[in-house]
Amino acid sequence: MSDIYDVVIIGGGPGGYNCAIRCGQLGLKVLCVEKRASKKLGGTCLNVGCIPSKALLHASELYEEASTSFADIGIDVTPKLNLPKMLESKAKAVEGLTAGIEFLFKKNKVDHVFGFGKITGAGTVDVEGKAYSAKHIVIATGSEVAKLPGVEIDEKQIVSSTGALDLDKVPGKLLVIGAGVIGLELGSVWRRLGAEVTVVEYLDHILPGMDGEVQKQAARIFKKQKVKFELGRKVTGVTKSKSGLKVATEASAGGKGKEIDADVVLVCIGRRPYTQGLGLDAVNVKMDKRGFIETDHFKTSAKNIWAIGDCTHGPMLAHKAEDEGTAVAELIAGKAGHVNYDVIPGVVYTKPEIASVGKTEEQLKEEGIPYKKGKFPFQANSRARCNHETDGFVKILAHAETDEILGAHMIGVNVGDLIAEVCLAMEFKAASEDIARTCHAHPTITEAVRQAAMDVEGWAMQM
Questions:
Q1: Which terminus of the chain has a lower count of CB atoms within 10 Å, N or C?
Q2: Ranges assigned E (strand) in 140-294
Q3: Are residues 426 and 372 in the same domain?
Q4: E-state strands within 44-129
Q5: Model pLDDT, residue 1
Q6: What is the C-alpha to C-alpha distance for residues 306 and 59, in angstroms, rounded to an integer?
Q7: Is 420 within a domain?
Q8: pLDDT tens digit sequence for 352-369
Q9: 123 φ/ψ sector (left φ>0, alpha ψ -120 to 50, else beta)
Q10: Which uninterrupted H or E stretch holds 102?
Q11: Are 51 and 161 in contact (CB under 8 A)?
């Protein structure tokens, strides 16, 4: 293995490994450095994030359906939870995908090494005492769990999202700190498997940043699923005892305290950029006060050093990092690299799923942009009715004057897939009428998107 490369990438997560593969495709000599102790590629997303959580979400959904819904459609079964087997199935999914990345690296002539990568000077990366030279360096180190002051994570009783993926038994009472995406997803897994789940959120609503109508509908659905919410409250401490955990909370604005019992506490208050110890000071890479690397079209303040993904500003999403990694590889190769940040979807993989892209109604009002709204409930969709999955709706927002689609917000089964149609339409600057006039197969849940687009101009025909 030569020690001189066109590109050295620090981080083997979605941003890093996609950047490496694209560099290889473009004929660049590239090295990807990954610090994970397990010596597995894929970063947080594949190893302890997106992928294993989706495996558990799917398995727990099937378990709950078999327990509660099968009888309604004429299937009589009595399911029994085998948690070790469920966790084993999750691990197999992860193992197969990490091995897949190594195969793709070989296919595209990408070198990789395991160890902590540190920039020691212009064009030099040290990995466990060995120096590698590069014309370009890409920082793709991702993010790590944000800590809550006064609450020490032990990954047994007080867990992060990582520990929540490997609990050895279903907790009687699970308290989730944070009503964001990760907290609601993992909380829903253990609720389906039998835990009593309480979510404590600092704000007075769940899913911060999402469309207001979606937030309200989601809260109603989760409450119907017996998830308890303590909104407008903050956790001030967790005390361990022989009988379990005592979680001290108080109103966010201050006031009378309230103690909540729990067997397991899951801390999900967000993530922070992983940028410490990378040697960024040595090459004058600028960061903000929170540790995010400052970039201008992926370029850092240091020549030929780039940064992508969670360690930079913007949504902490694997697909955002993937697009940035691809763009950087193309820019380094002398091509046009670009990411359209107005068309990056977000999905919450609860049941039902929640998906969004573009502007929310609240943002449009704040920015003074005139808009029209079309909305269609899954209750009126024939396929959703057949499948007994009628919770939720599709909402499309379009410019009042040009009809260009500005955003879409959905809650319902499989909307994580449905949102792609709107993303494609927005990428091509489509009008709501373009979707409304496009034939969709019947009966499918995709018709809800078309009907919502029709409703923008007031001619939805199925409600």
A1: N
A2: 143-145, 158-159, 173-177, 196-201, 228-231, 233-241, 244-251, 257-262, 264-267, 271-273
A3: yes
A4: 111-114, 117-121, 124-127
A5: 47
A6: 39
A7: yes
A8: 999 999 999 999 999 999
A9: left
A10: helix 83-107
A11: no
CATH number of the domain residue 178 falls in: 3.50.50.60
**Does the residue 214 lie in any domain?**
yes
Antiparallel, parallel or unpaired: β 173-177 and 264-267: parallel
Do 17 and 93 fall into the same domain?
yes
Q: Is the dihedral of CA 449, 450, 451, 457 positive or negative?
A: positive
User: Is 442 labeled as catalytic in the residue annotation?
Assistant: yes
Beta bridge pairs of residue 267: 177
Query: Does residue 173 sit in the same domain as residue 248?
Result: yes
User: What residues contact residue 61 under an 8 Å CB cut-off, 6+ apart?
Assistant: 192, 351
- Please check whether residue 150 lies inside any domain of the structure: no
- The values of phi and psi at residue 405, to 5°, are -70, 125
Q: What is the pLDDT of residue 288?
A: 97
- Does residue 138 sit in the same domain as residue 169? no
pLDDT tens for 204-256 read 999 999 999 999 999 999 999 999 999 999 999 999 988 899 999 999 988 78
H-assigned helices in 334-446: 361-367, 382-386, 415-427, 432-436
Q: What is the pLDDT of residues 58-95, one digit of tens each?
A: 999 999 999 999 999 999 999 999 999 999 999 999 99
Domain end call among 269, 290, 320? 269
pLDDT tens string 390-417: 999 999 999 999 999 999 999 999 999 9
Shared-domain flag, residues 365 and 312: no
Tell me, yes or no, whether 262 and 284 share the same domain: no
In a domain, 408, yes or no: yes
Mention every residue, 6+ apart, whose C-beta is less than 8 A from residue 227. 187, 188, 191, 197, 198, 199
Closest to 189 (Cα-Cα) out of 97, 356, 64, 334: 64
Could you tell me the residue range of the domain that residue 222 belongs to? 158-269
Which residue, 309, 339, 369, sits at the end of a domain? 339
The label of the residue with tokens 């078999």 reads 66
Alpha carbons 35 and 238: distance in angstroms, whole number: 32
Question: In terms of domains, do 165 and 256 share one?
Answer: yes
In the chain, the number of structural domains is 3
Asked if residue 2 has pLDDT above 90, the reply is no
